[in-house]
Amino acid sequence: NPEHERIAGERLRRRLAGAHVSLSSDVLPEMLEFERTSTTVVNAYVAPLIARYLERLRGELGRHRVKAPILVMQSNGGLISASSAAERPVTIIESGPAAGVVAALRVARECGYANVITLDMGGTTTKASIIERGEILRGSEYEVGASVSVSSRLMRGNGYLLRIPVIDISEVGAGGGSIAALDAGGSLRVGPHSAGAVPGPACYGQGNARPTVTDANLLLGYISSTSLAGSLRIDPGLAEAAVREHVAEPAKLALLDAAHGIHMVANSNMVRAIKSVSVERGRDPAEFAMMAFGGAGPIHAAGVARTLGIRQVLIPRAPGVFSALGLLHAEVEHHAARTVLTPTGAAAMAPVEAALEEMRADLLRRLREEGFDPARAEIARFADLRYRGQSSELTVPMSDGPLSEASLRALEERFEQEFERTYAHRGDTKAFELVTVRLVMRVPRRLEHGADWAAEAQAEHARRKVYFGPGHGQLDTEVLPRGALGAAPRRGPLLIQEYDTTIVVPPDCAAAVDAHGNVVIAVGA
């Protein structure tokens, strides 16, 4: 019953002119008091900031006579209008990583890869997610602010819980700007503290004297001293001084071994992120290909994949701005949910059918208000089920049409299949509860771009010394552009130099370019 909240909200708005008021009955009309409270508090916390930002953006666009509507990416991989984002900003908190997974799904489908693990490494964090059987793995909860931000129920209590539709993404503080240091016991740590964009890694010469992952990769030879096609000059001497002072000398290590240690610890952090969306959900990473992107992802991808037993790595075109491609191709998407809490018997389905129809009418109204044609909308239904007596549930697809005995038995079977995949067994009881019904309404935009959207910067062939760890030492390594790689596999070690990243192909690996322009790395044992 939302009426008491709405009355309180109206009184607050009258007495506190200009204040933003978040009502839990609007933000999360579901049961579970803690989740509902936490989500609403976070929404209220970020709402004024997001509203001011979108207002400034709209004003600046208007000043430049740009009248196009503003669409904002959500954590679920869909777009909403700026007005909806200002009302419920909690839905956009993990929007950047979601865009990368949307782009990965598009490429995976085009190239015929059904099972893909994504690795998105930028300047501050690394994000991992799963595409399984050609579909994005999704969740209904997410924790932010923890050492590992995840949607998994198996890792709880480290951050702020949000109960929102999300792409299942794990995020750790391991990026190009992550700071390396020895802890009180002398162990090497990388992140979660970051040098950020300003001042950035020590080699940028902007005032940071502490070593970062980027500094280590520069010393190892993975990164060129002339980055971004020469538009950004970096100083290897500053990177060397930072690694030597803060890691090598205190740990009594050679400079290159210290830099390689930083690289490997960063890799281990990324392995944690991937395991939290795969192993902890009952999936074996070795059964997936890896798609790596972000400015630093292709540098670390082969090493991370080898640790996890993954044998194939894909690097898409323009990996440094790959998430922007996902943003361009995302569809307008609205979500609604209602708690119903009923046994899965056909006789108890009348309130469920009513909730589904109410949500459908509400979402269609919202689309009309935002200027979209409701006739183009595509609707998908989902349900949260659990065994009777449990306190947590799993979300599974719900078929269209009336909720008959046959459709409810099929829904129960889908739940049991997902339960078995996640927890490796099925429950003894065959009594089920339907907790929440969900509706997803999409408006396809069907945007297409020409084949030259990822124009390659021309890089010259070169050679340089690259350190691949104590087992291989420093090797004379060929450096070439993606266009020169060709379809025939070439053995590593290789460096493929691009405008926005470097693809590292270690020894015992091989790389080639496929028919879609992706670099495909075959990872050796």
Which regions are unreliable across 5 or more consecutive residues at pLDDT < 50? none
Q: Tell me the distance between the termini.
A: 59 Å
Largest sheet data: 10 strands, mixed
Number of β-strand runs: 28
Using only C-alpha atoms, the radius of gyration works out to 25 Å
Give the integer mean of the pLDDT values.
88
Helix content: 25-40%
What fraction of residues sit in β-strands?
25-35%
Oligomer state equals single chain
Give the overall silhouette. Answer: globular
Protein structure class: alpha+beta
What's the number of helices? Answer: 12
List keywords for this structure.
525 residues; alpha+beta; ten-stranded mixed beta sheet; four-stranded antiparallel beta sheet; 28 strands
What does this structure look like?
The protein is of the alpha+beta class. It is 34% helix and 25% strand. It has 12 helices and 28 strands. The protein has helices at residues 3-15, 24-27, 33-63, 82-87, 95-111, 213-220, 236-251, 255-277, 297-308, 322-329, 350-369, 405-423, and strands spanning 71-73, 79-81, 116-121, 126-132, 135-136, 138-139, 142-144, 148-149, 160-162, 166-167, 169-172, 178-182, 188-194, 226-227, 232-233, 289-293, 312-315, 332-343, 378-387, 394-398, 432-443, 462-467, 474-480, 490-491, 494-497, 502-505, 510-513, 519-522. Strands 3, 4, 5, 8, 11, 16, 17, 24, 27 and 28 form a 10-stranded mixed sheet that branches. The protein has a 4-stranded antiparallel sheet with strand order 18-21-19-20, covered by helices on one side. The protein is globular. The protein starts with a helix and ends with a strand. The model has no long low-confidence stretch (mean pLDDT 88).
